[in-house]
Amino acid sequence: MRRILAAFLLLLAAGLFGLPAAAQSQESPAEKLQRWEANLTEIEKALADNSELPAERYRQILRTIAVLVSDARALRSEEQQASQPIRSQLTSLGPPPAEGQPPEDPDVVATRTRLSEELSRSQGRITRAELAITRAQAIETEIGRREQAVAQAKLAERGPTPLLPSTWHSALSEEEVIYKQFHASFMDWWRRLQIAEMSTPTIASAVFILVVAAVLAFPLRRWVLLRWGPGPVTEPPSYGRRIVAAAAEAVARVLLPALAVLTLRALFNVTLPEGTSDAFPIALNLGARNLIFYFVVSGLTISCLSPKMPAWRLVPVSEEAAVKLGRRVILGATLLMILSFVLIGATNPGTMQRSDAFSSILAFASSIIATATFLPCLHAKYWLSETHFKSRLSWGVRTIAALTIVASLVAAVLGYSSLARDLLTSLLISAILIGAALLLREIIGEGIRAFMTPGRKYYDVISRSTGLSPEAGLRTGFWLRLTADLILWPPVIYAVLIACGLSPTLLNAWMVRFFTQIRLGDLNFSLVDTAAAILTVVVGFLLVGVVKRWVRERVMPNTQLDLGMQNSIATGVGYGGGMIVLMLGIMVLGIDFSSIALVAGALSVGIGFGLRTVVENFVAGLLLLIERPIKTGDWIMVGTTEGIVKSISVRSTEIETFDRAAVIVPNSVLIASPVTNWTHKNRIARVVVKLTVALSTDARLVERILLDAAVRTDHVMKHPAPSVVLRAITHEKMDFELRCFISDTDYYLPTLSAVNFAVDEALRKAKVEVIASKSAEAEPAAAPPELPEPPRSSDLV
What we know:
Number of strands: 11
Shape: elongated
Distance between the termini: 81 Å
Helix content: 55-70%
Radius of gyration: 43 Å
Largest sheet: 5 strands, antiparallel
C-alpha cells in the first residue's frame, strides 16, 4: 500500500508540476519566439506608461528578462548549429546554372529550393532571437538608469541642517523610534521567554549554538593565535611567515568573533517567542551586523599594522606611524560603532527609516568622527617612510580619500545627509575591500614565490619533480602572479563600484555588453570567447611543443632516417600542429571562415606588395624542408659565410660559423644563390698533404713514407686506399701529394694533423730534406684545412 501511495503521489506531483514544464519544453522555436516577443512588448508598454514602478516589480521584470535572454541565446546557438549542415549541403550542390546553360535535374532543383527555404527560416529565427536579446538588454539598461536616477535624486535631497536647535528638538521629540520602545520590547521578550514552552529540540539547538559560539569566541580564537599568530622572536621573521601570522590574526580577530556573533544571533532567533514586539529583535539583529563590521575594521588594522610587534608588520611604515595609525583607526571604528547603535535606536521599527532630523544629526556626527580620526591618517608623514608609498598612485588615493571626507562634512553641514552618509559608507567599504584584496594578493604572491623562486622553501621539490630551471621558475612565477591579479581585481573593482552607488542592474548591463558584444565591422567579439581562444592557443602550443619534442627525441632516433630528415619531420609536426591550434582558436573565437576569406581576399594585394619578401622566404623555407638540399648539420658555404646549419625555419636558416657566431640567412638567398654543401650526399672528405723535397731524394722512399704515415693514422679509409702522386719534377725539386679519404668530415682536422705529425717524424728519421710544404687544400667533398675544427655530430643534434 505504501508503494502504491508513493507512486500515486509521484504521478500527482508530475501532473501538477511536470506537465507545464514539459509543455513549455515542447514548444516549437516559432512559439517560443512569439511568446518572448509578447512578453517584451508587455514589459516595454508597462515601462512606457509608468515612469516609476515598485522595486519588487522591477526585480520581477529583471528575473523574467534573465530567463528570456538565457533561453534566446540557447535557441540562437541551436539554430546556428543546425544551419551549418544546411549551408554545407547547399555548397555541395553549387550555384544554379547560368542563363544559356543546360537545365539541372528537377530533383536537384527541388533539393536546392527546400534547403534554401530551411536555411532562410533558420536564419530568420536567429535574427528574431538576437532581436529579442537586444530588446531585453535595452529594458535592463532602462531599469538600471531608473534605479540610478532614483539614487541620485535621493542624494540630492536636502534636509534640515544639524546646526539649528530646531533640528535637535525635532529629532528628540520623535516617538516612533527604537530607543523609546526598547525597554518595553525587551521586557515583553523576557516575559514571553519565561512563559514560552520550548520543545526539547529547540532547547538542544540553543545549547549547541551557545557551545559553538563560546568555542569560536574564546578557545579556538586563542589556539589560532598561539599556533600561527605573531609572537616574541629573536630574529626578524620572513615575509612569508609574517603573511601567515597576519592571516591567522585576521581570522582570529575577524572571522571567529564574527561567527560567534552570528551564532549568538541564531540562538536568539531560535529562542524568540512568537508575538514579541519588533524593537528589541531589530536592535539586536542590526547591532550584531554593526559589531561584525567593527571586527573587520579593527582586525584588519591590527593584523596589517601590528603596532605592538614591529617585527611582524606587513605595511611598510615606521613604528611611530604604525602606532598612531592603529590608534586612530581603532578609535574611529569604535566611535562609529557607538554611533551605529545610536543610529539603530533612532530607527522607526515599523518602516525601518529615520526622520530627516535624525538623519541629518547622525550624518553630521559621522562626518566629524571621520574628519577627526581618519583624515589625519592620510597625512604624508605617515606614508613617506618607505619608497613603497612614494608613488603618484598613493598620493592620488590619499587625496581622493581626503576630499571624500571633507566633502561628506560639508554635505552634512548643508543638510545633505544622504550624500554625506553615502560618501563615508562608500569610502569605508572601498577601503576594507581594497585592503583585504591587497592582503590576499600578498598571501597568494608569497605562496607563488615560495614554490617558484630559486632558494626558497619548496622550489627544490618543484624543480626535482618537473625539471624546472631557475629562469623558467621566475618566468612561471611572474605569469602566475599576473593571472592571480587578473582573477582577483575585477570582482574587487565590481564591488567597489557597487559600494560607490552605481546601480547593480546598470553595471551588469554594461558588463554584459562589454564582455559579449564588442563589434568590429561585421564581426561580433566576446571577451569571454577571446579569453577562451587565447587559453586554447596557449595550451595548444604547449601541447604541440611537447609532441614536437617527443617526436624529435623519442620517435626519430629510433628510425633509420638521417639527421636532416628527422629535423624536417619534427619541424613539420610543429608547423602542422601550430596551424591546427590557430584554427581551433579561431573556431572558439566564433569567427566565420568565410569572413576570414573575404578579409584575406581584400588584403591579398597589400600582402602581395608589402609582405613580398616575407612570403618569398616562407615559400623558400617550405621548399628547403621538402626538397632538403640543405639539412640541419650540413657543412655549407654561402658567399663568404661558411659553417654548420643549426636550424631551418620557414623564414630563415641559422648557420653557426667555426668562430661560434650565428649567421641568420634568409631562405630566399639559399634558393636563389649558389650554395656549396660539403655534406650533401655523404660526409666523406679527402685529406691532401703536399710535400716538396730535393731532386736528389729517393722518390720511392718518399712514397713509402707518405703511404705508411697515412695507413697508420686513425680514421683514414682503406677503400679507397691512400695514394701518392708525384705532381712535378723540376731542376731542383720534386712535388708530392698524399691523398687519403676519411669517412666523416668531423675528423678532418684531427686526421690532417695526425698525418702531418706522422710524415714529419718519418722524414726526420730517414733524414729527408724538405724544401717546402703546404697545408691541405679543400677539394670536392672536403673542406678548407685552414678553418678551425668544426663541431662534432653530437653538437648538431
